[in-house]
Structure formats: structure tokens, C-alpha cells
Amino acid sequence: MTDVTSAKTARRPHHWRRDLIELAALFTAVVVADTIAKTVVRGADGPYMLVFSAIALIATATFHTWWARRHSHAPPAAHPGGSGPTPLSPGADVPAHDGSSGGADDRRAPVETSLWRMRTTVRDTPGSLAALCTALARHEVDILTLQTHPLAVGTVDEFLLRAPAGLQAADLTRAIATAGGRSTWIERADAHDLVDTPTRLLGLATRTALDAAELPLALRQLLGRCRIHSLPAVSLSGRPTGETAPVEGVLEETVMRLRDPNGGVLTIERPHLPFTPTEFARARALVELDARLGPRIPRSQDVLTLPEGNEITVRRADQRDLVAARAMHDRCSPRTLALRYHGPVGDADRYLDHLLSPRFGRTLAVQTASGRLVALGHLLWDGDETEVALMVEDDWQRRGIGAELLGRLVAMAVEAGCASVYAVTQSSNTGMVAAMRALNLPLDYQIEDGTLVITARLATAPAAPRHRLPLGER
Asked: Which of 146, 147, 161, 171 is CA-nearest to residue 114?
């Protein structure tokens, strides 16, 4: 709509009755004026009446001026249907705030605040959201973002809140319950949650499109704290597992099951918070994107120079490197295989297809100038934890290759937001122990029946790999 009104629209219609009344008023005024003039001229007190009339006229004009000025400075009338002043039309001048009339809120010191993520279920009726906002306002809580997740009955409202630091989660929960919210869930948030939802979804889709190994991580960042299990259609022994899921997927409160593009089922569990249909649709869209793009890994590779002058290439690997990885296994000694797989090594090749799958983690391969694989490093998603595993061919051991791979895998774990990584090996594997200690990270050791588990906490880990060998880019 526009505030400009045409002259044709603004012209008021005239009626003959109004014209007749105005004409009659004019004749009446003439008659009254003539009568007063004759009285003043012919009467004995004519001059006095003229003076008194002038004084009355001046007094009336003065009173009218005072009355007009008083009402012109009154506050603007309230807008119909609202409690605030009438909105200004476009182009109207807005007086600047000079701070001279500010209240106590303008003078008080800034209050320390904290961020919260909150989710609550309300009735899908007019005014339910307004009641929540009013309850939060009473506690001086600022709503930064809001998402609504429609349900069959009711609506789930998800907030990102900035609240006074002294306000506790229990106080927020009670306030929301009083305003009609139920099944309220709340946890601390950080600056990463300030990114708006469409931007975050586009970023996750981009990461998934560039690297198939990013799908589990993208799902975890999309859905928050959850456990993701990838169950293949065929077990390591070659037998069908019987795990299938319909194309459209299944949503069951705190569990969703989606068809894995690589075969099998992706199971996502979040016991502390039920999934909403909106979250299920977003997760299914990411999985469908992964399925349409097919197998893919970043093509970047680094050329390293060993101390003796030989060049090797470090790159990402996947199931397309299965034949070369099996050939490396055949060249490894039984002791090397035993240190890697912690048990019988006769069927070690069966694990390779699982280890090289980007659905279960990321794999780095080291190959020589002739193209032969001589080392593999795995970063494996294990629920909420992350495992690192290394295997270097016998003839290429003790040249710093294992330490280089481990440093790069840890950098990947930091980038993925992992809190720690662990390595499972035998207590006699001094090479793996030395490589973990070379990370310069806090380490925890657990030994049971000759099996050593070393856990590195990544809170202080570097965000980029620390190359231990001379590096050149190809």
C-alpha cells in the first residue's frame, strides 16, 4: 500500500442540503451584524458596547490560542489495536534520541549473560507462543533464534536464548511450565549455535557433497548429541545381516532408521530427546544427497620427502583402493598384522572393506613413487568416541611414516570436533606408544591382559597437522 492519495480520491462529495445550510447561515450572519450595527450607532451606550465587544473578542481569541497549544503538545494517540504510538508514515522524520531523558536502564552496567538452547512443547493455539515469550521477558531473557517443529498434536518450539548469568536452568524450566510449556529440555549453548539454521544446513550439505566420510559427522552436528550406527547389509564373514530399512525411512520417537546408500541401515539414536518430523526430514535429505553423489573423497595429496631422500605421497583412500591394500597385507609379516589386528591374522583381509568405507571413518594411504601402498592410517567413528589405527609395511617402518599419519589423523579428529581419540594395541608395540607420546597431548593408559589402550585428549590439540617430514604440495 502507498500513503499517497490522488486528488480525485481525496475530493469530498458535496450535497445540496449542505450548500443550503451554509447559505442560510450566511444570511443569518448578515442580519445579526446589521442589527448590532444599528444598535451601536443609534443607542446611547453604543461606544461602550463596542469596547466591551472588542474585549470579549480578544479574550475569546486568547483562550482559543492557549487551548490549541496545549493539545498540540499532547502525546500521540495510541494505534488502534495496539498499545504503542501511531506508526509514522514513510519518509517522516524521527527525532534522534539524545539520551537526556533515559531511565535507569540506560545508566546501569552491562549484565553478564550466558547462552542456552531450549526446546519445549506447546499447544498449537493462538497465543501459546506469546505466553512463552512473556514468561521469558519477565526473567530478562532475550530470544536470539526460534524454530518451530509442527507435530500431529501441538508444536515443538526450539529457542536459542541469552539469559542473565545468574539465571539457572531450573528457573527457566519453571517459568516455561507456568506459561504452558511441557516436556522442556534445556542445555548450555556456545557461540557456534549463533549461526542461523539455513546457513548451518547449507554448510553441512556442502561438507557432505565434498566428502562421503562427512555424512555421519554432518548428521551428528545436525541432530546434536546422538549415536550413529552404520550396519552393513553383509557381515565381515560374508553373510547377510538382514538389516534393511524402507526407502522413506522409519521414525520411532528417539530412534530413526534410514537406508544407507552403501547398503544396510543407518540407525540414529538420541535417548534424551525425541526426534521431530522436521529433524527426520532434514536427516533424510542429507542421506539422499549422499546417495545421489555416490562414492567421493577429496583429491588433494601431499608429497613428503623421507630422511634418506625417497618421496612418498599421502592421500585419502577408500574402497577403490581395496586391491592395493590387500597386496600390502600380503607383503606384511605375521607380527605386523598381529600388532595391528590384536588376534588371528588369517582373515585380516576381510576387515579392509569395512575399514576403507567412508561411512565408518576416514583413511589415509601412503604410496611410493611407483604407486605401491606401503602404509594405512584409519580414523574410525566409534559412537561418541574415535579410534585411530596404523599399519606400516615392514620395509618402511621406523622412517617417521607412522608418526606423520597419526598427526594428520589427530588433526582430522580436531576438525571433526572430537574430544579425544584412542588407540588399541599391544603393550609390546613400542612404535605406536612412541607415536602417541610424540603428539604432546594429555594421555591416559589402560592395560588389561596385555592389551594397551591409549587415549589422547584433544582440547589442546592443533587445528592443523604438524608435519614431521619436509613437505611439498603437488
From this structure: 161
Instruction: For 123-162, write each residue's pLDDT tens digit.
Output: 988 999 999 999 999 999 999 999 889 888 889 999 999 9
User: Are 185 and 118 within 8 A, CB to CB?
Assistant: yes
Measuring CA to CA, how many Å separate 164 from each of 110, 130, 143, 196?
A: 10, 21, 12, 22
Gyration radius of the chain over CA positions:
39
**Alpha-carbon span 225 to 252, nearest angstrom:** 17
Q: Helix 430-437 crosses helix 401-415 at what angle (to 10 degrees)?
A: 50
Of 258, 252, 260, give the one whose Cα is nearest residue 233: 260
List domains and CATH numbers for the chain. Answer: 112-190 (3.30.70.260), 197-293 (no CATH), 301-473 (3.40.630.30)
Phi, psi dihedrals of residue 304, rounded to the nearest 5°: -110, 150
| Angle subtended at Cα 216 by Cα 211 and Cα 221, rounded to the nearest 5 degrees | 105
Distance CA 436, CA 445 (A): 11
Residues of the chain with pLDDT > 90: what percent?
26
Sheet hosting strand 155-164, strand order edge to edge: 142-150, 155-164, 113-122, 182-188
